[in-house]
Amino acid sequence: MSDFEFLPHDLVPDDAREAISDSVLYEKRPALRPDGSVAEGLFNAWISLNNPAQFNSYTTDMVKAVILAFRAASNSRDVNAVVFTAVGDKAFCTGGNTKEYAEYYAGRPHEYRQYMRLFNDMVSAILGCDKPVVCRVNGMRIGGGQEIGMACDFSVAHDMARLGQAGPKHGSAAIGGSTDFLPVMIGCEQAMISGVLCEPFSAHKAMRLGILTDIVPALKVDGKFIANPLVETQQMTDEYGRMIHGEFKTGQAAADAKAVLKTGEMDLSLLDQKVEELCTKLLMTFPDCTTKSVEELRKPKLNAWNMNKENSRAWLSLNMMTEANMGFRAFNEGNREVGREVDFVALRQELANGTKWGTDFINSMMPGADK
Questions:
Q1: Which of 129, 169, 183, 301 has its CA 20 to 30 A from that of 17?
Q2: What pTM value is reported for the model?
Q3: What are the C-alpha distances in Å from 104 to residues 170, 298, 332?
Q4: Rounded to 5°, angle at Cα 200 from 220 and 342
Q5: Can you tell me whether residue 211 is helix, strand or coil?
Q6: Containing domain of residue 312, as a range?
Q7: Do residues 299 and 350 both lie within one domain?
Q8: Residue 77: which CATH number?
Q9: How far is CA 229 from the centre of its chain?
Q10: Torsions phi, psi of 337, nearest 5?
C-alpha cells in the first residue's frame, strides 16, 4: 500500500456535512464483483432522502445536504457509482416540501430566489458528478422528484411507482429540469403531455417511454412477486388501436386490482438486487473511460439545463407572489374532504374580469373557502 497523502477536495469535512441535515443519509456500501463477492476497498455511495412522512419531499436543509453529499461522492477515490434513493417504499421524492413552500416562501420572492439557487446547484451537482449516478426509484417520483431523478444517468424502479409532473396543477411550472430533460428523453409531444397535463403515469409506461433503465416487481401476494395489478402489463390496444400497455386500469378492473393490493405486501429486495447488478456492471469498466462517456452522454440534458436554469429561477421567484403563492397554500391548507387544488374555473373567471392579485383574492381561492 502507498503511504501517499491525498489532499482533501471536499467543501466541508464529513462531520460538518452530516450535521447539516439528518434527513439526507450518506453511506458507502461495499462494491460487489459479478460473482457477488466484495471488491475490497471499493464502494458505492448511497445518498438517501429521509423524510418519508412527507413523501421524501426536500426541505431547504435537505437540498444543501444533497449538494454536499454528491460533492463528497464525486470526490471519493474509492467510490465506483452513486445510488440516489430514499427511505421507505412509498416515494422516492415528490419535490419541494410544500409545507415549507406555503408557510415560508409563498409571497417572499427574494427568499425563494435564494432557495432556487440551492435547487439549481443540487441539479447541477447530480449532472456534474464524476461518478455515474443511479436513481433507485423506491416509490413516487413526482414534480421536483422527477426532475432530480431524470438528472441521474440511470433509473431503476419498482413497478408500483408513479412518475410525472405536478406544476400547473399546483401553481408552478416544471422548469426545474423537466422542461429541459423531457423533450430530450421522450420527445416533444410526450413531454408536453407530462409537463402540462400533470397526469402521473406508471413505471411500466415510463419504461416504454425510455426514462427508466429497468423495472422490477415489488408487490408480493401469497409469497410470490406479481406485476402491479393497477396497470395493464400486456401489449394491448384500445378500440382506437392505441397501445395501452402501461396505462392504469379503470372501472371494475381498477376496483378488482385494488382488492388484490390489500392482500399483498411490499418487498424491495428485487429492486436492491437490480441496482447492485447495475453498479457491478459499472465496476467492470475502465473508470476514466466511463466518466468521459457519462459526461458526453449527459450533454443534451446539461446543455438544455445550463441554457435555461437562470431564467427559470427568476420566473419561479416572481411566481411566488401569484400562482405559486395560491397553489402551494391550497395544497398545504387543503385536505381530502375539500381537496388540495383551487377552483381553476373560478380563478380564470376572476382573472378574466380583472381581479387583482392580493391576499384577499388568494384567500378566496383556498379549498373550502366561500366564493
A1: 301
A2: 0.94
A3: 16, 34, 12
A4: 125
A5: coil
A6: 14-218+267-319
A7: no
A8: 3.90.226.10
A9: 23
A10: -70, -45
Whether 317 contacts 105, CB under 8 Å: no
Q: What is the mean pLDDT of residues 148-166?
A: 98
Phi, psi angles (nearest 5°) of residue 297: -75, -20
Burial 354-364 (b: 16+ CB within 10 A, else e): eeeeeeeebeb
Q: Are residues 271 and 371 in the same domain?
A: no
Residue 304 sits in the same domain as residue 349: no
Q: How far apart are CA 132 and CA 358, in angstroms?
A: 46
Q: Which residue has the higher pLDDT, 247 or 270?
A: 270
Nearest to 152, CA basis, from 138, 135, 139, 175: 135
308, part of any domain: yes
Task: Count Cβ atoms below 10 Å from residue 130 Cβ, excluding itself.
Answer: 17
Helices (H), the chain: 14-20, 60-75, 98-100, 109-127, 144-150, 178-186, 188-192, 203-209, 251-262, 269-283, 287-319, 323-333, 344-352, 359-364
Q: Judge whether 211 and 163 are in contact, CB under 8 Å.
A: yes
Instruction: Please provide residue 192's backbone torsions phi and psi, each rounded to the nearest 5 degrees.
Output: -65, -45
Residue 350 lies in a domain: yes
Our measurement of the distance from residue 124's CA atom to the centroid of its chain's CA atoms, rounded to an integer in Å, reads: 14
In whole angstroms, give the CA distance from residue 217 to residue 158: 6
Please check whether residue 228 lies inside any domain of the structure: no
pLDDT per position as a tens digit, 4-47: 889 889 888 877 676 677 999 999 999 999 999 999 999 999 99
Quick check: 23 and 59 in contact, CB under 8 A?
yes
Phi, psi of 299 (to 5 degrees): -60, -40
327 domain-assigned: no
Q: Which residues of 170-201 are buried (b: 16+ CB within 10 A; e: fewer)?
A: bbbbbbbbbbbbbbbbbeeebbebbbeebebb
Q: What DSSP state is assigned to residue 52?
A: G
Residues 214 and 291 in one domain: yes
